[in-house]
Design goal:
The protein is an alpha/beta fold. 48% of the residues lie in helices and 10% in strands. The protein folds into 4 domains: 3-190, Nucleotidyltransferase, domain 5 (2-Layer Sandwich); 195-289, DNA polymerase, domain 1, CATH 1.10.150.80; 303-381, DNA polymerase, domain 1 (Orthogonal Bundle); 393-439, no CATH class.
Length: 446
């Protein structure tokens, strides 16, 4: 039996799987014309058997499947499963738990950033994956044998790949690392709608709080309407039209119809009235309650070069530990650490701090240094730390007037000395104020 399309068979199969250690899980769904994913097929594989569950079969009761997903004694294994999690949360109100996402686990085990399913299966099992039915319409019935074979292949291969990946992670002592990452997957807050913050997805380029208040109101309106009507957001109103409405708030249907991207039919329809109410809500919101403009990062002097050093350190540490860089720290995280020892970023907590964050802080404060040793970059412990070194005079405008007048005189004086040296009147300028200070730093230090 490879296809289950009735409630009794589903209940019996899920009851049998409730006694196993783990199941491999995948789904096929459609989302092109809906807000919520339309679940079309669920693939499950236990240690001995794999089946496809027709979630669209007339009268089928999926509750035994939901109960299995919530059974904490059975681990659910998936690959790139965030949308699968969202589907179950929407349909049952609960999330599969506990879970392991092999895409994340592979990053912990050294397979690179967000390794694809086909690549992971090939590297762990040596098997090729048939992706010929990737773009099939899974809502159409009946399903062909080829479609079912394709769908079941995903969980059959995943079962073998997971076991090998699990062994590698356990041997490396990184099971807790994966569990820490899965905590986000298993948190219901990750999948809840958040209409008041939907405006942030639009990335507005304005500091006008009144405009942001209108955008917040109409973006929340669209989120609610799309979810209620089960239509894609842009089927309600397109992103660019929302931004235009926020910038030029309409007071009437006629005004709304003149907004670029808003059709006359929409402006005169029933939905437009609720949109105009949302606009008015944003316009009447007290300004001190309006959203703050998204902070724009200001890079302090010296943070850029330090961030570059952190990137070298991150490359070094991730190569040594065989972990994907993307899992450890982003460029924004590195910049945040450069500016603040207490930055609230993942790289300064948990296992990331152990493998990278602590060394990044030590590098920042001169207790560690990066050095070249032949073709390799190595970390060097610095005894007593590095004393602060004043910036070159050319980098410090004198007199506080920003004109750099003193620096200009110094540069002209140095150019005159160099010209005299070239004419044989004076030794060449070295550009080093104190040669002994230059000798104190090894040549290979970076």
């Amino acid at each position: 039996m490879t296809l289950i399309d009735d409630s009794a068979a589903l209940a019996a199969f899920c009851k049998a799987l409730a006694r196993v250690d783990y199941v491999a899980l995948d789904t096929e769904f459609m989302r092109e014309s809906t807000f919520w994913p339309q679940l079309c097929l669920v693939q499950l594989a236990g240690p001995e058997k794999a089946v496809a569950i027709d979630s669209l079969a007339p009268g089928i009761d999926l509750q035994p499947l939901f109960d299995l997903m919530a059974n904490r004694r059975v681990l659910k294994v998936m690959h790139g499963g965030r949308q699968d999690m969202e589907i179950f949360h929407h349909l049952s109100g609960e999330l599969p738990n506990p879970v392991v996402d092999t895409q994340v686990a592979a990053m912990v085990a050294g397979f690179g950033d967000q390794v694809g399913y086909e690549t992971l299966i090939a590297r762990l099992t040596g098997q090729g994956v048939d992706k010929a039915s990737r773009f099939t319409d899974w809502s159409l019935r009946p399903l062909s044998k080829h479609q079912l074979d394709y769908a079941l292949g995903d969980v059959i291969h995943l079962r073998e790949a997971y076991e090998k990946l699990r062994d590698r992670i356990e041997a490396a002592g990184r099971t807790d690392w994966v569990a820490e990452e899965m905590a986000v997957f298993e948190n219901p807050a990750t999948y809840r709608l958040d209409p008041p913050n939907a405006w942030r997805r639009l990335k507005p380029r304005t500091n006008d709080r009144r405009q942001l208040a209108v955008l917040q109101a109409i973006a929340a309106w669209r989120e609610d309407e799309a979810a209620t009507r089960d239509l894609p957001r842009n089927r309600i109103v397109r992103d660019e039209a929302l931004l235009e409405i926020a910038a030029h708030p309409p007071k009437s249907a006629a005004d709304l119809g003149r907004i670029r991207g808003v059709s006359r039919g929409f402006a005169e329809g029933r939905l437009a009235a609720t949109l105009l109410t949302a606009v008015e809500r944003g316009l009447s919101l007290p300004l001190d309650e309006a959203p703050e403009p998204p902070p724009r990062p200001v890079v302090a002097r010296g943070v850029g070069p330090l961030t570059d050093l952190f990137k070298v350190l991150l490359n070094l540490r991730c190569e040594e530990w065989d972990v994907a860089k993307k899992l450890v720290a982003s460029s924004d995280d590195l910049q945040a650490i450069a500016g603040d020892d207490e930055a609230e970023v993942p790289a300064l907590a948990g296992w990331r701090r152990e493998m990278f964050g602590a060394d990044a802080l030590a590098l920042k404060h001169g207790r560690l240094a990066l050095a070249a040793n032949g073709k390799q970059v190595v970390l060097v412990t610095v005894e007593g730390g590095i004393a602060s070194v004043p910036a070159p005079s050319a980098a410090r405008p004198e007199g506080g007037n920003g004109a750099g007048e003193g620096d200009g005189r110094a540069r002209r004086k140095r150019r005159r000395r160099r010209r005299r040296g070239a004419n044989g009147n004076e030794g060449p300028a070295t550009g080093v104020a104190d040669e002994s200070s230059a000798e104190s730093v090894p040549e290979e230090m970076v």
